[in-house]
Design goal:
single chain; Growth Hormone, Chain: A; 18 helices; cell membrane; MOT2/MFSD5; membrane; molybdate ion transmembrane transporter activity; transport
């Protein structure tokens, strides 16, 4: 058993221990309450969430290699395609939330399934060698739809869920548990998707197979959303009796966005999620550079096993998040500060060359921070942002994130990972200061 398989085994054992610890019964099992029954009614959301995240994870790891190996596209053109996706995500963030609030979050989720399915199908269009111009345009259109879909994925689904939970009368504790379960589900789905995508590629002999699999998952999600979900709107949409004038909604939107607490959360999300995207681009070259500097011969890194280990670290931390919040070990804002501070420390320690295993475990520690970040940030935004403009605010908060990633990629390219990690650590530390100054802990 090689060292990375051993590491993965240990992390999975930790996940199992945390899962068993959460299921250990107390003296008496509480009787079902109305809120428990209402929470159980969210099963359709969790099933859909697992399907759409599975569709994202299934094809994501093979996007670059599909472009390079099967479409025979140059590295510079691949970079342009990726940048197109982030620019599309930034631009769509200016109007996605408003349209979702006006026309319905359920409707926007259905649009996501259609747009992402079309993006996957366009991505596996005929290679540029067969038809030089038309397929290239289709690939760029696929990236535009991919960026649009990403904005929808991280905006409308959470907006629908939080508003639906409020309508059902779920408590803040129920909402926190849902966010924790979403993070756990995402980690499990990521591990299964990684294994599943490898199996699809090895069975079919083409890297187009995971994209077809993603489309199937999205079709299933579309059917569940269409038949099981109810619609909810922002203050500017639908036939809601709380419907307001456009001016009133705009004023409320900018009032929310100008709230120092919301601004500090927006800064934190930009810095953390931007650093996460950059980490995705740079962890492979950073780890390879350390391996090459070691005395041992580089026999090739088992990227699939390493990726699974990262996801296992994320799963372990999402399970720990549920325990920490349930036992009220830390408030949500204090936990977010700890997450950002730990992430900054990881990046600072990664600036100078380390041993292979030290680098690996620092990466795992950052992935553990990711596992706690999303449910913690989701809960805090759920408390601070009004349901009437929720999707719009979420959409606007993703604009600086996409700008940050695009600018970073343009300036770094294939540059030194250590410099990128240093910048990420510094910006994460600055976001900690912004949260502290804004006194966000009042929101928790």
């Amino acid at each position: 058993m090689d060292i990375y398989t051993l590491n993965l085994t240990g992390l999975l054992a930790l996940c199992g221990a945390l899962f068993v610890a959460q299921r250990t019964p107390n003296t008496k099992s509480p009787k079902p309450t109305k809120n428990t029954n209402k929470a159980n009614s969210q099963w359709s959301f969790l099933v859909v969430y697992a399907l759409v995240m599975g569709a994202d994870w299934l094809q994501g790891p093979f996007l670059y290699s599909l472009y390079h190996d099967e479409h025979n596209i140059s590295s510079s053109l691949i970079s342009a395609l990726f940048t197109t996706g982030f620019v599309s995500g930034g631009v769509s963030g200016t109007f996605i939330g408003s349209l979702a609030d006006r026309h319905g979050r359920k409707f926007a989720c259905l649009v996501f399934c259609l747009a992402y399915s079309l993006s996957c199908l366009l991505t596996i269009s005929p290679s540029a060698a067969a038809l030089p111009s038309i397929p290239l345009l289709l690939l760029f259109l696929g990236r535009v739809l991919g960026g649009l879909s990403t904005s929808l994925l991280f905006t409308v689904f959470e907006s629908w869920m939080v508003t639906d939970a409020r309508a059902r009368g779920l408590s803040d504790g129920d909402l926190s548990s849902t966010f924790g379960l979403m993070s756990t589900l995402n980690s499990v789905v990521a591990i299964l998707s990684g294994v599943g995508s490898e199996w699809l590629v090895s069975t079919t002999g083409t890297k187009k197979a995971p994209f077809v699999g993603s489309t199937v998952l999205l079709v299933i999600a579309f059917g569940i959303i269409y038949t099981q979900w109810t619609e909810n709107y922002g203050q500017s949409g639908g036939t809601s009796p709380a419907k307001k004038t456009t001016t009133g909604v705009t004023n409320k939107l900018w009032t929310t966005l100008s709230n120092p607490k919301v601004l500090s959360l927006g800064l934190a999300s930009t810095m953390f999620e931007g650093s996460m995207y950059l980490f995705v681009f740079f962890w492979v070259p950073a780890l390879k550079a350390v391996v090459s500097a070691d005395t041992e011969t580089d026999k090739g890194l088992p990227y699939g096993v390493i990726f699974a280990a990262f996801m296992a670290a994320t799963l372990a931390s999402s399970l720990a998040f549920t325990t920490i919040t349930r036992k009220q070990v830390l408030g949500y804002a204090s936990l977010l500060l700890a997450i950002l501070g730990t992430s900054a420390a990881c990046f600072f320690l990664l600036v100078r060359p380390k041993t292979e295993q030290t680098t690996f475990w620092l990466f795992c520690l950052f992935e553990a921070a990711v596992g706690m970040y999303f449910p913690c940030m989701g809960y805090l935004k759920g408390r601070l942002i009004d349901d009437g403009v929720r999707a719009q605010v979420y959409g606007f908060l993703r604009i600086p994130l996409n700008v940050f990633v695009v600018v970073s990629l343009l300036f770094t390219g294939d540059g030194d990972a250590g410099t990128v990690f240093l910048v990420c650590g510094t910006l994460l530390l600055a976001s900690c200061g912004a949260l502290w100054v804004a006194n966000v802990q009042e929101a928790s």
